[in-house]
Design brief:
The complex is a heterodimer of chains A (about 140) and B (about 270).
Chain A: H1 6-31, E1 32-33, E2 36-37, E3 44-45, H2 47-52, E4 58-61, H3 65-70, E5 77-78, H4 84-94, E6 101-104, H5 111-121, E7 128-131, H6 134-140
Parallel strand pairs in A: 3-7, 4-5, 4-6, 6-7
Antiparallel strand pairs in A: 1-2
Chain B: H1 8-15, H2 17-20, H3 23-39, H4 54-69, E1 73-75, E2 79-82, E3 90-99, E4 105-112, E5 117-121, E6 125-126, E7 131-139, E8 145-155, E9 162-170, E10 175-177, E11 180-183, E12 192-197, E13 203-209, E14 214-220, E15 226-233, E16 240-249, E17 255-264
Parallel strand pairs in B: 2-9, 11-17
Antiparallel strand pairs in B: 1-3, 3-7, 4-6, 4-8, 5-7, 8-9, 10-12, 12-15, 13-16, 14-15, 16-17
Helix pairs in contact in B: 1-4
The chains are: A alpha/beta (about 140), B alpha+beta (about 270).
Chain lengths: ~140, ~270
Amino acid sequence: MARLPQWQTVLKQAGILLLASGLAATVAAFSISLDGPNVIQEGEIALADALLRQPPPLWIDARSEAEYRNEHIPGALLLNTEEWEALVTRVLEKWEPERTAVVYCSAPGAQASREVAARLRDFRLGPVFVLHGGWNVWKRK
Amino acid sequence: MLDKSGTASKSGKSHGAPACGSMASVCKFREVWRSFFRRNGSPASIPLEMNHLFFPFLALLGMLTCAQAQSALRWDKKVIELQPGPTEKTARADFNFTNTSQKPVVIDRVKPSCGCTTAALEKKSYQPGEKGHITAVFTLGSRKGDQAKSIRVDVRGENPATLLTLVTHIGEPARLEPSLVFWRAGEAPRPKTISVKLPPGVRLTRVSSSDPKFATTLEPVGEQSEYKISVTPEGTAKKAMAVLNIQAVTRSNEPRTFQAYAQVKGP
């Protein structure tokens, strides 16, 4: 087989490297989105599953008050760790025993939702989940 | 990867020596590369002639290392860890930096990852050699455990942005199990119990109910820092809710207050 000139070989190898890195980046982009890993973690619920729950879940918005006032899931109650004491009594008034609560926020790692969900579980009123993908998933619905 | 020492630009330079060094060192590096693949298989025996990958590899390495080395600001620390005292309501940290470049640097934006954190910058423009700092204040609220809050710093003409992290270790204030006692409508109004486990050296002094329809009693259990709170509703015919304020003092006599809740649920 005829050997290519050295500069063509270099270009060919550079092309292979670029293709390989592009492939790796594509795989990474599909497995890790901006909303966090695509795999549902322990304590999370997919939006489709949450919407099928009967009775419908109690939606808890763990974002800031400004974000909540701008837009939120219909019927959702605001509850964040900044103003926990002021907000939690309203949640307790609306949360009937055994009813599922689903917490969402807009942070990529759902950190705010996880903190709020952990504290809600301490009440032992009913199952508490974090919405997988958070607010962005609801917006894309 | 976050750099705990805050010396990203220095480490970038040391790794970048083959790419940014003299021509002689580049040739020497190429010889090492070639001899490695000669030892591990001749060009004829492998489909990709690995010795020809040297220049693309060098270009990639150069791009990566030079991108790191370009940052004009040198940070004393990019990660700061704090452990606030039991009575503190905020955690505050100063992220110090120096403009190590030869040109003025403009910081376009500092953006905390959470509404619970503020980040303040004295001014936007810094001359060569000038020092500055970003003050981050994290409001603890009712958070518990380890908290990591990040601040994104956008420097004009630099990409990617710098990420600063404030890690706050908040001690577990009290363990309440459960933090809510409730009765369904019509249920017998028997007492229900909340177990309280406090950190060592913290002593529970008083429990008060925001609604007199719920009576409370406090009783120490075994060890010094464990207690039992018994809650009894007056009746369960009507909806009712009370906040139980649990007051404690630390070893150094600092007051602490925790909340639990009691509720009669509606029909």
